Amino acid sequence: MQQNERSHFGVSAVEIARFLGVSLLAVAMLCVGFPANARAESVGQGQPLLAQNYPPPPAYPPSSPPPSGYSAPAAYPPPAYGAPAPGYGAPAPMAPMDVGTAVQDGRNDADTQISGLLWFGAGCLLDWVGIVLGYVLSPTPDGSRLIGKSPAYVAAYTDAYQSEGKSYQGIHAVYGCITQAVVVAAFYVVYFVIILGAAAAAAPL
Q: Do residues 123 and 68 make contact, with C-beta atoms less than 8 angstroms apart?
């Protein structure tokens, strides 16, 4: 009877059932009923380390004093208000000769670059309005003339160019306005002379 109960491999059904039951019980204990202290003990026996078994991180900043001989890095004091940064050197002042050169260059360029004929025509056509515009509108210097120049040179050149340019524009507008007034006056003189001459010739003797 016992020989019939064994399987072809020589293991009985009772032994197989017993093995399966023990295996299921062991799995259940591992998943549900395995105590925490047993898991902690298993760490030292080559078992994987669980997250809750890691030691807590140290507090920050560390409570222990620094080692002997340690000194904190020195902090640079803030610069005084208005004081230049370390290593900063103020630009060298511009020589008076350079300022004079910039002023002369600005005046010469204004006289050569601004169209006097344009403002002469403005004075002829617009009368006193052209004169006002000539003295009010500031001409713009050519930027290519200032490439590579120092800020002081640029400032002196620009001021001289605009000042001379306004004078140049205004005086040519005045010339145009005077020319227009002379032409108009001459026209009326000729007109009245012709009219009076025609009237005198037509009058009976």
A: no
Tokens 């050519």 sit at which residue? Answer: 142
- Of 35-49, 59-73, 174-188, the range with the highest mean pLDDT is 174-188
Amino acid identity at 181: A
Two tokens, residue 123: 């004075």
Residues 6+ away with beta carbon under 8 Å from 121: 176
d(CA 35, CA 199): 141
- Which residues lie closer than 8 Å to 40 by C-beta, 6 or more apart? 53
Lookup: tokens for 193:
């002379």
User: Where are the domains positioned within the chain?
Assistant: 2-50, 96-202
Question: Under a CB-based contact definition with an 8 Å cutoff, are residues 98 and 160 in contact?
Answer: no
